[in-house]
C-alpha cells in the first residue's frame, strides 16, 4: 500500500474532524476513559475498540488474550495454550511497545527482558471493559505507548450475587462468584474466579510431544468506594496466582522446544487508591496512587531453577477544567518508579491535554508531555487529532501522535560475551504515527474504516558482537483497518474486523509474528425467546518466525445460551470446530476440537 496514499488520507482527514450526537445504542458514543478526557470514541479522532463485559461473556473465552484478537490491528501469540506466554502486538509493534493499564496503573513486568505484560493469565470474569487505543499514545500515558494502549477496568458493584461454573475438554474446570452491595454512601464488590486444566502439550504434539502441560490459576478482584464530604474515594485490588507447566528449550527440535518437566509459579498484584473532587462541568481533580508487582518461581524436574520479582509504583495528579460547550483542558504530573533485581529507575512527567469544540460538528484534541528519565534524560511527545461530523451519522477522523519507550531495567544493565559493562549509549525507542478514517453510523449499519502509517526509530535489540543491547535500524509500518456491524434481521447481526499490516525493518524484511492479513467474522444470533448464540470465524495469515514460517490458519468457534429464567442461564461453547491443525508461535501447539458447558446465575 503506497505510503503517499496514507499520507494523503491523513492530510485530507486532518482538515476535518468530529463529534456527533447519536443514540445510546451506538458503539461510537461510548466514553473512552483511556483518552484522559472522557471523550466519546467519535470525538477522540483516534482508532479505538472497546470490549465490554457483555462482549467478553458472549465470546466465552476463558482468557482475555483470545478476546483481544477480535480488534483490528491486534495480533496475539501464545507459546502454547493454557498459560503459555501471551503477547499482544498492535499494528506490528512489539509486545513491549504496548502499554497495559489495569484500573489506570501500568502493569508491565519490570523483571522481564523487555518489560512487557504477559496476558497469559488474565481472567475476563473480573473485567468490566477493555479499551484498545491504536497508534502512538505517549502524550497520554508516557513510556511504552509506542504501538498503542490496552486499558483494562475491573468490575464495579452491581448490588447482587453472581456465580458461574463450567467444565469441558482437557479436564478443564472453571468457575467464580462475586458479591456486591450499594448504599447512599458508596459501594463494594468482591469477586473470585479460577480455572484448572490438564491442558495440552506446550510443544506441538505433531512433532512427537505427548506430555500434557497443566495449568491452575485463581484471581481476585475487590473494589470499595465511598463519598467522604466532598471527596470521592475509590480503592481497588486485582490479583492472580497461577501455576503453569511448560516444556523445555531444545534447539534441535522444531521451534526450539520439546517435552520437559518444568513449571512456573506466578503471583501478580495490582492495587490503586483514587481521591477525586469536582463535577462534570467545572473543575475536577483526581489523585491516583497505584502499584503493581510480580513474583515468579521456576522449577525444573521439581528443583528450583530460576526466580525473579519486579515492582512498579505510580503517583498521578490530573486537574480538568470543562465548560458547557464540551471543551476541556487537563493538566497534571506523574511519577513512575520501577524496581527489579536490585536495579531501579524513575520517570517524572508533566502533561497538558485539551479538546476544543470548534463548532457543533468539529472537535480538535491535542496535548504535550514531558517525561524525564533518571538515566536517559528528557523526552517530549505531542499528539493532535481532529474529528468532524460532515453529516448526521458520518464522521471524518484523523490523528498524529508520538511515542517512546525507555529501555527496560534488564536492557539497561545486562552485558555478556566479553563486554565489560552494559551499553552506555543505549537510548529510548521513538515513533511517529498518522492515521485517517471515517466513522459511519446509520440505523442498520455502522463501521470505522481507516489507513495508518508509523515509523519507529532506534529499536532496541541484543547484539552478540557488542555483548549487550544496542539501538538498531527503524521499522516502517502501514496498513488498513476495518471494523463494522450490520443488522441483517431483527435477530441476526454480522460483525467484521479486518486489518492489512505491512511491517518491515530497515532492510525491507517482514517483522516476525505479524500477519499481513487477519480478521474475524462473527454472526450474532438473538431471536425472541430464551435462545441466543454466535458463530466466530477467525483468520490469521502467514507469519514469519525466527525458526520458520507459521502457516495461515482459519478457526471456527460457536457458542449458544439458553435462559431458563431471569436469574439462570446455561451455555455451551465449541472451539476449533473443524479441528484445524495450526500454530500461533512456531513449534508450539494449539488445542484441537474442544467443547465446554456451563451455567450462570445472578440474584
Q: Please, could you describe this protein's structure?
A:
By secondary structure, the protein is mostly beta strands. The chain is built from six helices and 33 strands. The longest helix is centred in the N-terminal third of the chain and has 12 residues, at 3-14.
User: Count of DSSP helices?
Assistant: 6
- N- to C-terminal distance: 53 Å
Broad shape:
globular
Number of strands: 33
How is the biggest beta sheet arranged? Answer: 22 strands, antiparallel, barrel
Task: Tell me the strand percentage band.
Answer: over 45%
Which residues sit in consecutive blocks of at least 5 with pLDDT less than 50? 1-24
What value does the Rg take, in angstroms?
23 Å
Search tags:
603 residues, mainly beta, 22-stranded antiparallel barrel, five-stranded mixed sheet, 6 helices, disordered N terminus
Layout of secondary structure:
Elements: H1 3-14, E1 31-32, E2 39-40, H2 41-44, E3 48-52, H3 53-59, H4 64-68, E4 74-78, E5 86-90, E6 98-102, E7 105-106, E8 127-134, H5 138-141, E9 148-154, E10 161-168, E11 172-182, E12 186-197, E13 215-228, E14 231-249, E15 257-277, E16 282-300, E17 303-322, E18 328-340, E19 343-357, E20 362-373, E21 377-391, E22 394-405, H6 409-413, E23 429-441, E24 445-457, E25 459-463, E26 468-472, E27 475-489, E28 492-505, E29 517-525, E30 531-540, E31 553-563, E32 568-575, E33 594-602
Parallel strand pairs: 6-9
Antiparallel strand pairs: 1-2, 3-8, 4-5, 6-7, 8-9, 10-11, 10-33, 11-12, 12-13, 13-14, 14-15, 15-16, 16-17, 17-18, 18-19, 19-20, 20-21, 21-22, 22-23, 23-24, 24-27, 25-26, 27-28, 28-29, 29-30, 30-31, 31-32, 32-33
